[in-house]
Amino acid sequence: xxxxxxxxxxxxxxxxxxxxxxxxxxxxxxxxxxxxxxxxxxxxxxxxxxxxxxxxxxxxxxxxxxxxxxxxxxxxxxxxxxxxxxxxxxx
Length: 91
What we know:
This protein has four helices and two strands; from the N terminus they run αααββα. The protein is mostly helical. A hairpin with a 4-residue loop joins strand 1 and strand 2 (about 65).
């Protein structure tokens, strides 16, 4: 089966900023993106993007992906912004 050229030439929307918190949360909780993206191709594409961005890394002894310091920081920033936007921020 030949991959569609249009799919590989277009920039992936999978690593769009609004999708990153959900992906990072899944990696933090489960060590993978299996539940976040069931499609293998999409999951691989997003995994590569997160690695390239320095947000996740493979933890060989544990056999799973972990958030890097940058990934934890990005997720914490999102949680803080969500708390402020949702009116749950403490004064």
